[in-house]
Design goal:
Elements: H1 2-12, E1 17-20, H2 29-40, E2 46-49, H3 60-65, H4 69-74, E3 81-85, E4 88-92, H5 112-123, E5 132-136, H6 156-165, E6 170-177, E7 180-186, E8 189-197, E9 210-217, E10 222-230, E11 236-246, E12 249-253
Parallel strand pairs: 1-2, 4-5, 5-6, 6-8
Antiparallel strand pairs: 3-4, 7-8, 9-10, 10-11, 11-12
Helix pairs in contact: 5-6
The structure holds fe (ii) ion (FE2).
């Protein structure tokens, strides 16, 4: 499946790739080595962030003393990072945690420091000026149906409002294995949340593996999402959503 996804991305000749976490199943060294090689195979720059599955499961010493060492060795030097491509600023935030109070360690959160990092990055002047500003994290920012759909980050309204106030247009998320898009209103304006399905996991939750293709048209301030769903027997089906921005405000375009 991973090669099918890579071929589909290559055919689309994308300008950048964002991988919104869960690069591995259990954070093993060999899994990270493989995904590091995989990401280097793209012709476009990639922004990757960890997910809850990327915390080492089978080495408690590594999990607690150096949870992101493998990610840093094989994927990227930083777990919170910024990528600028052709007037699009993308900020990745690591919402996964090696442990937390409570039994469910798969849940995520963002710290005040991370929200500040994103807000400062969103507001910073870039050259060329960013016409589209994106925040990416692994955990969902709105509850959705399905087994993992309730795993929203704590204090999500405050985080989204800070992102919107700093100029964020898009918030990309993963974790729930169901692709979709929605406008989220905040006290500082609306942001578009685009959720990724699973690209290669066998844990499917009601829909096949998928990959989101986001096309940004800066001249018309139009954003199109195409979800490519990898059906059986090599077939690919698609779902489309479109949004437009007028005087700084996003709305969904209806057919
Ligand atoms: Fe996850």
């Amino acid at each position: 499946m991973a090669e099918r996804v890579k071929d589909c991305i290559a055919a689309a000749a994308v300008d950048a790739v964002v991988v919104s976490g869960d690069l591995t199943q259990a954070g093993r060294q060999r899994e990270f080595a493989a995904v590091g090689d995989y990401l280097k195979g793209f012709d476009a720059p990639a922004l990757a962030i960890p997910g809850n599955h990327d915390v080492p499961v089978y080495s408690l010493l590594t999990r607690f003393l150096a949870p992101w060492a493998r990610f840093r060795e094989h994927v990227a030097p930083q777990t919170d990072a910024i990528l600028d491509v052709d007037g699009v600023r993308m900020i990745g935030l690591n919402s996964a945690r090696p442990a937390r109070f409570g039994l469910d360690w798969s849940l995520g959160r963002l710290s005040d420091r991370q929200i500040r990092f994103a807000a400062e990055g969103l507001k910073a002047k870039t050259s060329p000026a960013a016409g589209l500003k994106v925040v990416a994290l692994h955990h969902p920012v709105v509850p959705t149906p399905g087994p993992a759909g309730g795993a929203v980050i704590p204090h999500r309204e405050r985080a989204l409002q800070r992102f919107a106030a700093a100029g964020a247009d898009l918030v990309l998320t993963g974790h729930v294995h169901i692709a979709g898009a929605r406008l989220i209103e905040t006290a500082s304006g609306a942001v578009i949340n685009i959720a990724a399905g699973t690209a290669a996991s066998t844990r499917q939750r009601g829909e096949p593996p998928s990959c989101n293709f986001i096309n940004w048209d800066p001249d018309n301030e139009r954003l199109d999402l195409r979800v490519a769903l990898f059906e059986e027997a090599g077939a690919i089906s698609h779902r489309q959503r479109s949004f437009s921005r007028r005087r700084g405000a996003w709305r969904e375009k209806t057919a």
